[in-house]
Amino acid sequence: MPAASKAVAVSPAAAVPVPGATAEIVTFRPPLRPVLERVGEMARHVAGIVLPPLIVIGLSLLVWQLLCSEPGARLPPPTKVVSDAWDFIVDPFYDNGGIDKGAFWQITKSLGRVGIGFSFAAVVGVALGVLIGQSTWAMRGLDPIFQVLRTVPPLAWLPLSLAGFRHSDPSALFVIFITSIWPIIINTSVGVRNIPQDYRNVAAVIRLSWWEVFWKITLPATVPYIFTGLRIGVGLSWLAIVAAEMLIGGVGIGFFIWDAWNSSRISDIIVALAYIGIVGFLLDKLIATIGHFVSHGVAAQ
Amino acid sequence: MTQPYLKFEQIGMRFRRGQMSTEVLRDIDLIINKGEFVSLIGHSGCGKSTLLNILGGLLQSTTGEVFLEGKVVDEPGPDRAIVFQNHSLLPWLTVYGNVAIAVDKVFGKTKSKEERHDWVMHNLELVQMAQAKDKRPHEVSGGMKQRVGIARALAMQPKVLLMDEPFGALDALTRAHLQDSVMEIHARLGNTVMMITHDVDEAVLLSDRVVMMTNGPSATIGEILEIGLPRPRRRLELATDAEYARCRAAVLEFLYARHRVPVRAAA
Ligand SMILES: Nc1ncnc2c1ncn2[C@@H]1O[C@H](COP(=O)(O)OP(=O)(O)OP(=O)(O)O)[C@@H](O)[C@H]1O
Ligand SMILES: [Mg+2]
Asked: Do B112 and B87 touch, CB atoms closer than 8 A?
């Protein structure tokens, strides 16, 4: 508590009015204590957030290391993962042609597919959601269908889309699209239905046109719901793309894992899994952050 | 013969829910003069909001018509701006934006961009909210939200200002403060106002006339009390005023002695 005791020593001096003499000291010193204290407080706060996961991760790695160190273990321990996959970890940008590319290129390719498929799903999903939300009849008719379709696992769509598109790339995009669109539609339509009657009354009193109601009331009032749907959707697309890529082949983190399995590069698989998890987490945070800003803090982060 | 400014003629209202049908309002006849401040008081559920919403055009009466300056009211419009009980500000707009959305729509064709900006600011100043113009509704207090709601309604330059329990959700001090603001604005602008309230003091303090409604179902106007108190009125002086006490007693008597138990017509 050095900062606090110093402050006690300082404050009587500051309290004595010395005309025209210590103005500088009086204005400068008091903030010093809060700053020091605040830095300490912040450090403690950050430590409180960062330390527990670090400890848990450390312990898990240790247990893993112990379990997998004995001869005959089927999975490599962390140290071996790092040494085996060292090239893959340190140089994410290598490109040896074909599908032999670094982690960066693999992930970028997968992200690109998610970006395209998910964007389509977002636009179509929000549009459909708004339409369905406006009409009780459409809601009653379509909702049961959506509730059934949304439970179909992503990969179950793949054979059908391959049959339809005859090429693997558009099929993968379609799988992402069809996987992520349901939560977007459903959340958007629920959002539209939940717009408070008050907002509609306000719109009616100032006589907004249909189009103005859509832009100025419906859409902004639904934004928090839309982003809930988008968050679920982006998570599902990331799940779907990794699985779909395993089947369609080519560059992409999903097929990379499959390829690594076929060549028994277990360590590469483990590193790739870590990357997939981190990217998925970042995607979720990205959508949540955009939602937070677009909804002016109403959508939860 | 001069045409009445605002006239309710034989208003009746029935709500149907499936086979069930309840008559909420019956035989409402009322004439309100220009610049008059009229309060509507009655027990909960008697149909005050229903009547106000019929005037606001948000509901269609089953029978009868409302005439404003001789024209039938049949849809909502800015000439009958409403201050809602729960402020109903749009949370994604700032305080300024909430007033501007109405001003831009109502005066989009008749005022320039600059004039509209000035008009928004003028109305925010009227309710003393100009300094908080960039805040969002969730960042200001309940009383401040209600002020913005009033500014939004006033900014439409309505022929009649409708207020549905505008201060119902506020604490007593904030409420008194806003009542003073409303009296001041009414004195300055001379709006015609129709206000719903549950508060007897509020009704007597603010109104030129208090319209007292009988209990539902089939509620109608039971009595109309003229408040002869001179303006400007000051709440402190009125506390000991004999006429104020008489009006207050009359409303209380109506509400709690004569219409305490819902009157049911023998069927
Ligand atoms: N849309 C509706 N459908 C069916 N009944 C309704 C509807 N709106 C109101 N009512 C009924 O009409 C009656 C009057 O409602 P209203 O909201 O006008 O009362 P109120 O006098 O404003 O009450 P409060 O003081 O509690 O606000 C109530 O019994 C209510 O249940
Ligand atoms: Mg009401």
From this structure: no
Record the pTM: 0.77
Q: Which atom of ligand 1 is nearest to the CA of B17?
A: 4
Sheet holding B20-32, edge to edge: B20-32, B6-17, B63-68, B71-72
Contact call for residues A53 and A62 (beta carbons, < 8 A)? no
Phi then psi dihedrals of residue A52, to 5 deg: -55, -50
> Which residue in A187, A272, A191, A268 sits closest to A231, CA to CA?
A187
User: Hey, what are B122's tokens?
Assistant: 């003028």
What domains, with CATH codes, occur in chain B? 1-79+159-170+191-267 (3.40.50.300), 80-157 (no CATH)
Q: Which residues of A touch B57 (CB under 8 A)?
A: 204-205
Tens digits of residue pLDDT in B214-246: 987 889 999 999 998 998 899 888 889 999 999
Beta-carbon-side half-sphere exposure of residue A232 (alpha carbons within 13 Å): 16
Asked whether the beta carbons of A197 and B72 are under 8 A apart, the reply is no
Of the candidates A199, A206, A212, which has its C-beta nearest B78's C-beta?
A206
Q: What is the third-level CATH fold of A90-299?
A: MetI-like fold (1.10.3720)
Three-state DSSP at B68 gives: strand
Domain extents in chain A: 33-68, 90-299
Write the ipTM: 0.87
Between CA A270 and CA A260 the distance in angstroms is 10
pLDDT one-digit tens code per residue, B56-107? 999 999 999 999 999 999 999 999 999 988 878 999 999 999 999 999 999 9
Where would I find the H helices in chain A? 2-15, 23-69, 78-84, 86-90, 103-134, 136-149, 158-165, 168-193, 197-205, 210-213, 219-248, 253-262, 266-294
| Rounded Cα gap, residues B64 and B12, in angstroms | 6
Q: Within its chain, how far is the Cα of A141 from the centroid?
A: 32
- Tell me, yes or no, if B101 comes closer than 8 A to chain A by beta carbon: yes
Residues with a CB atom less than 6 Å from ligand 1: B 15, 17, 24, 42, 44-50, 216
